[in-house]
Amino acid sequence: MKKKPSTPLSREAEAFIEMLSAERGASLNTTAAYGADLKDLETFLARRKKKPINADTEALRAYLKSLDYVGMTPRTVARRLSVIRQFFRFLLAERLREDDPASTLDSPKLGRPLPKVLSRDEVDRLIEASRRDDDHGRMATLLEILYAAGLRVSELVTLPLAAVERDPATLVVRGKGNKERMVPLSDPARLAIVAWLHVRAAMLEEGEKSRFLFPSRGRTGHLTRQRFAQLLKEAALAAGIDPARVSPHVLRHAFASHLLEGGADLRSVQLMLGHADIATTQIYTHVLDEKLRALVQDKHPLARRKRRPPG
Fold first, then answer.
1. Which of 97, 222, 258, 275 is catalytic?
2. DSSP-H helix ranges across 96-135
3. At residue 234, what are phi and psi to the nearest 5 degrees?
4. DSSP H/E element including 198
5. Is this model's pTM higher than 0.85 or not?
6. Is 63 a catalytic residue?
């Protein structure tokens, strides 16, 4: 059987695509994607005996619901909606329509993606792998501090020497908005710092001084975020962990999640992370909920029973 020839885009849609290319400099990939999205919309509208020039809000809402029905992700639906909104604004601006039926359409709720988290065993393996590397203990110290204090990577690499010179039980961190916060240090982190201070002093040339805990001869004067991220990927490989799963922020996530697993209260974790809003910290409770749900599904004896059909 011969396939029915594909129905071309409407003149209005073709004009819109041409505008994207000529006025906005859209790439071929972008115009092709927009064209495919509009083609799908017009095919749906045609089944309702409608076209872009006479489609109403109800028809557009029905189209968006159809995308949800076939299992399209909220993020993809949001992208389709963005194309629709731009298209109908174009029709209104070109006076091809007297109204904009897409102006009152609601965006789908995207939700907030759960942060990636390493297990405690994986963190231990990561730190142990960094100890085996011949970097004079610098990387192990960086990881011990990062995991013990949940610092942002920018806070970690710019730590001043003065913050640790007296072997403190707590670390004073200057974070976003130049705000200071105090974070308790674990014993392993403190021991790693003490060992690193001896190595650090020996590594500096005679008369050379640096105000940073992790000095560098580069332009910034301290270890850069990019270099630390690179070293972290190397440590992940050495530890047998997929480097794609590891980043400085993932270790910050691990710090928060593991504290909550251990019974820490949300307010304390918020203060240690330096979050201005506790709602930001609450995302980690969702990670914990997911882990508990998976634990019940995998380990609970009743979960293994086959459910009998009702009746």
1. 275
2. 120-132
3. -65, -40
4. helix 187-203
5. no
6. no
Longest dimension (CA), the chain: 86
Based on the residue annotation, tell me whether 249 is a catalytic residue of this protein: yes
253 catalytic? Reply is: no
The catalytic residue among 176, 245, 267, 286 is 176
Identify whether 245 is a catalytic site residue: no
Q: Which two tokens stand for residue 108?
A: 């789908």
Is 258 an active-site residue?
Answer: no
Q: Number of C-alpha atoms within 13 angstroms, CB side, residue 103?
A: 8
| H/E element, 173 | strand 170-174
Q: How many CB atoms within 10 Å of residue 39?
A: 16
Q: Does residue 136 carry a catalytic annotation? A: no
pLDDT in tens, the chain (311 residues): 444 446 789 999 999 999 998 888 888 888 999 999 999 999 999 999 999 999 999 999 999 989 888 888 888 888 999 999 999 999 999 999 999 999 999 887 765 555 577 888 999 999 999 988 766 889 999 999 999 888 989 999 999 998 887 767 888 888 777 788 888 888 999 999 999 998 988 888 777 889 999 998 888 999 999 999 999 999 999 999 999 899 998 888 888 888 888 888 778 888 788 877 776 676 666 555 554 444 444 544 544 444 444 44
